[in-house]
Design goal:
This protein is an alpha/beta fold and 334 residues long. It contains 13 helices and eleven strands. Strands 1, 2, 3, 4, 7, 8, 9, 10 and 11 form a nine-stranded parallel beta sheet that branches. A two-stranded antiparallel sheet has the order 5-6.
């Protein structure tokens, strides 16, 4: 089995640091550099332009863009521009987006399954230079068509957690970013994806199913856990109650974490999430992280996305990932 590894950068770091980390990721054997999109961080597409300028091999793309925030026509426009800049290495990630950010922006995440499905349909046609007519609950396209195109096929990934979104993505998407760290949740998700894809007449191997895992690496376990806590809290806060119940997370506790995250009180959020952090992030020494990632790969995944924070010191964590984690994973390849 050929293991694929990708990395996600949260553009909260200075652009000079992002540039250095992107260059390092390009030198290593990573499949894709994803850049997350949150209004409180640096702009996703400006950051991707920087990443494109210092990379030559690795694929790059936004992961993920929410159609509640970005009109699908502008998603297609931006991704096609990125494909020009990155010389055909662009990928696109879409999804409903996290509930906390949408609420802070005064946006209601209504009919998420239909909205994401309509966005996937619309973006795919626009990327191919086709005219689109769509009336979705939160956006419309009336004979819309992009005035330029790129000759390469640009794969579209869907970020998913809930059953409905996982099934829809299994039927329609080129790839799926499964945002779990818990073994049981990841096992459940991949089985659901495989069943849904086969029911739709698709070969599951035609899809790129990615375990999207927040990771924090450090020689000091306590520092690794501390860095992972705010990311675990944010993911927990944005997860639906059905998902949380399946993970065994107390809904009352989740409500307190959501309130703290909404107020940007991450000290309070970290206090509440500490007992559940293992369900939402992988953290520890390079050896411990490698073992956990191997556990995830053994569940049937062939592609792991190492998400932020990467570590308490992201640049040092990338060096540890290169020197001590990646070799262990490569040793397990057939």
């Amino acid at each position: 089995m050929r293991i694929k590894l990708s990395v996600e950068f949260a553009p909260k770091w200075p652009t000079s640091m992002l540039r250095d980390m992107a260059g390092l990721a390009d030198e290593l054997d990573f499949d894709t550099i994803w850049v997350s999109d949150h209004y409180h961080n640096r702009n996703v597409f400006v950051t991707l332009a920087i990443v494109a300028s210092v990379t030559h091999r690795v694929r790059i793309g936004p992961g993920i863009l929410s159609p509640y925030v970005h009109h699908p026509a502008y998603i297609a426009q931006a991704v096609l521009t990125l494909a020009d800049l990155a010389e055909g290495r662009a990928v696109c990630g879409i999804g409903a987006g996290d509930l906390i950010s949408l609420t802070q922006l005064g946006l209601e995440r209504s009919s998420p399954l239909r909205v994401v499905r309509d966005a996937l349909f619309s973006v795919r046609k626009l990327l191919k230079g086709e005219s689109v007519n769509v009336c979705s609950p939160t956006f419309k396209l009336v004979g819309a068509k992009i005035g330029f195109e790129h000759p390469d096929n640009i794969p579209i990934y869907v970020g998913a957690q809930g059953d409905g979104m996982l099934k829809m993505a299994a039927r329609l998407a080129d790839g799926i970013l499964v945002n779990f760290s818990d073994d049981d949740a990841l096992r459940y998700a991949i089985r659901l994806i495989y069943r849904a894809s086969m029911d739709a007449g698709r070969n599951p191997s035609d899809m790129d199913v990615v375990a999207h895992v927040p990771v924090s690496i450090s020689d000091d376990v306590s520092l690794a856990k501390k860095a992972a806590l705010p990311y675990a809290a944010y993911i927990l806060a944005g997860s639906g109650d059905v998902v949380l119940e399946r993970l065994g997370v107390c809904i009352e506790k989740a409500s307190k974490i959501r309130s703290a995250v909404m107020c940007m009180d991450f000290q309070e959020a970290k206090r509440f999430v500490e007992d559940d952090v293992d369900k939402f992030a992988v953290y520890g020494t390079p050896k411990q992280v490698a073992e956990r990632l191997l556990d995830i790969l053994s569940l049937g995944y062939e592609h792991v996305l190492v998400g932020p924070p990467i570590g308490p010191d992201p640049q040092k964590a990338m060096a540890l990932l290169n020197a001590e984690v990646l070799p262990r994973l490569r040793d397990e390849e057939d």
